Amino acid sequence: MSHLFPLTPATPDPLQAAHLLREKLRVEGQLPQGLLRQEIEASWRRSFSHGLDCIDSKLVSLQVVNDLDMLLAANRMLLDAATPEMEFLAERYGNEGLVILGDANANMLAVEGRTDYLRTLGIQDITPGACWSESLRGTNALGTALIESRPILINSGEHYLECLSRFSCSSVPIKNPHGDAIGVLDLTREGTLAQPQDSLGMLMIAVSQIESRLFGAFFPEHLVLVFHPRQQYLGSAWHGVLAVSVEGDILAANQQACDLLRLPRDKMVGQRCEGALGVRGSTLISRIVHDGTAKVPLAHGEFYFKALQLPRTPTIVSTPTTTAKPQPRPCTLDELADGQSRFGRALRMARQGLNNDLPVLLLGETGTGKEVVARALHEASARAGKPFIAVNCASIPEGLIESELFGYRDGAFTGARKGGVVGRLMQANGGTLFLDEIGDMPLHLQARLLRVLQERKVAPLGPAKSRTSTSR
């Protein structure tokens, strides 16, 4: 029997070899050692102990949650954090298979991609609410990754249930800032993968982005930092992430941060920055906030730091006292218009558009004074005296742009500020909202903003009705 497995180039038919191995397990009640990868063999043994028939089992609806709405509401923070990555993966791999998000119990929360071809295969329960735990479905990437607590690949015949052998799946657990698994991201495709590590690598990068975004959701009032010895790795799957309080205490750290600093999580979380990192918290935070990206010497070497989220409490940054300089008077539209020049005619046309409640698009390179022009247009329009709100979209971390623009209601997610937050769109209600570097905004948010401009309705995050906005 040993010549039939593992799945190697010498195996003429890997699926047939897997079938024969299942037959042996079914008849003899024993699984030969060394014929499967170690983690797959361990999973097969667990599946056998659950009493699953590896050959005759069919994909029936073994377990579906009773209240799907309650399941989705309980995992809203995870769903919001994962949506951008799911949309990206579905765009890249959606024609080949499915992108699936599951919770900590392997209940499916969202499915993107080729859901149409599931019906042709007679599969009904790859759908939100279906449970894909290992105890119910045997060896499968979504359920087994949660048991193993690490990324895993199940390639066709490595599935315990023979009816799943037509699929190849990759899954990566999603962990919260405290290191607890709260979900799993899965990519399922039909057939045997020739280069399976490619999809697993893409999933690991996506999960890193989701986990970084979760830091901001868990600690909305505090500073969230990313760091790495090499600057080009900031924003990658390999950067460390820290949440730091306004007092300079380390609130949470991801596994990469622990690995980079060579400290276990329990020796870092709850400690002062100077104790865990070898640098005062105020020094670290001031440099990052003032310099954007800062190279900081720590106890274990030099690291590049960047703020993923700035604290809402300004006292975290200690700045030297300086004598306030008088602010220059803002330019007026007449001063900018400069007679009958082409630029002047364009400005007067833009003012006419604002006075007729039309949005105005300003095009220009960085540093050419788009905000100066926007403010002058506002002051020269019928909206003068109303709020003028300027937002630099490039300076807001991707995971926070939505809540920054649209706001959120009390209880919208774990860690949400009591009473909620009014978004910039409603702060500018009746006045002018200036969005700088809008091209850096994620495409799905650009589409949502377009709907706001068309319908004049703003829906904050959380269970709340839309509100009318007259900002332009």
SSE topology sketch:
Elements: H1 14-28, H2 38-49, H3 68-74, H4 76-93, E1 97-103, E2 108-113, H5 116-120, H6 134-137, H7 141-148, E3 152-155, E4 167-175, E5 181-190, H8 196-218, E6 223-228, E7 240-244, E8 250-253, H9 255-261, H10 273-276, H11 281-291, E9 293-298, E10 301-309, H12 333-337, H13 342-355, H14 370-380, E11 388-392, H15 398-406, E12 407-408, E13 421-422, H16 424-427, E14 432-436, H17 443-455, E15 457-458, E16 467-468
Parallel strand pairs: 11-14
Antiparallel strand pairs: 1-2, 1-5, 3-4, 4-5, 6-7, 6-10, 7-8, 9-10, 12-13, 15-16
Q: What does it look like?
A:
- Keywords: ATP-binding, Nucleotide-binding.
- InterPro entries: AAA+_ATPase, GAF-like_dom_sf, P-loop_NTPase, PAS, Sigma_54_int, Sigma_54_int_dom_ATP-bd_1, Sigma_54_int_dom_ATP-bd_2.
- GO terms for molecular function: ATP binding.
- By secondary structure, this protein is an alpha+beta fold.
- Among the domains are: 2-36, no CATH class; 219-316, Beta-Lactamase, CATH 3.30.450; 333-468, 3-Layer(aba) Sandwich (Rossmann fold).
- 36% of the residues lie in helices and 18% in strands.
- The protein contains 17 helices and 16 strands.
- The strands form five sheets. Strands 2-1-5-4-3 form a five-stranded antiparallel β-sheet, with helices on both faces. Strands 8-7-6-10-9 form a five-stranded antiparallel β-sheet. A two-stranded parallel sheet has the order 11-14.
- Helix 4 (76-93) packs antiparallel against helix 8 (196-218) and helix 13 (342-355) crosses helix 14.
- It starts with 13 loop residues before the first helix and ends with a strand.
- Residues 1-12, 314-327 and 412-416 have low confidence and may be disordered.
